[in-house]
Amino acid sequence: MGHSEWLDLLQDLMARLTIAYKTLLDEPKRVAYDKQIAAAGAFTLGQDKTESEETVDECLTRAKQALRAHNFAGSILWLRKCVEIAPDVAKHHAMLGRSLAAFPQYRQDAVRHFSMAIELDQWNTSAYFQFGELYEVMGLPWRAVPHYRRILEIDPEHAKAIERLAALENETASAKPNSGKSFLSRMLHRK
Question: Who's near 74: CB < 8 A, 6+ residues apart?
């Protein structure tokens, strides 16, 4: 309250909170609001339909909406449904892997889904690239290198893979002191 320049913002916030609270208390208003949110595709789990009635396309559409809103938790819910309904679609596994990778606690699960995506579609350079990026984020750059190399086998002109591979190779080269000599050679020639 010591910041007078925030007073208008705080008043606006309190007004919005009051409206939200009144909407939650009034049953007809709350139901109307819930229907409006559901119609807009705002990350509900489809309370009007049973699981068997939902199609993969509907789930994928909702997952994409969540991704556009940077709501990775919401996209994970919908993409898990996609994988459950159609487990042999590489794209669903790759998208789920990308969403899971946003959360450190889910990165091992992301590895599993990227592996499955690659197993199902060995020509998907996007899955290889995202898998490589995940390994880099996890601090495992040596595991990323084979993925970037595989991309270049599929598409020798893939600029991002060329860039990442060069950067990782430069990091590796600069991290090796006395790279021309073996450890035993350096030990025997010490004075």
Answer: 43, 62, 63, 66
CATH of 122-175, one of 1.25.40.10, 2.60.40.10, 2.40.50.140, 1.10.357.10: 1.25.40.10
- Given a cut of 60, whether residue 190 has pLDDT beyond it is no
pLDDT of residue 16: 85
| pTM for the predicted model, two decimal places | 0.62
Separation of alpha carbons 44 and 168, rounded Å: 41
Q: What would the CATH number be for the domain defined by 36-106?
A: 1.25.40
Distance of alpha carbon 25 from its chain centroid, rounded? 36
Which residues lie closer than 8 Å to 62 by C-beta, 6 or more apart?
A: 41, 43, 46, 74, 78
Predicted confidence band at 76 (pLDDT cuts at 50, 70, 90)?
very high
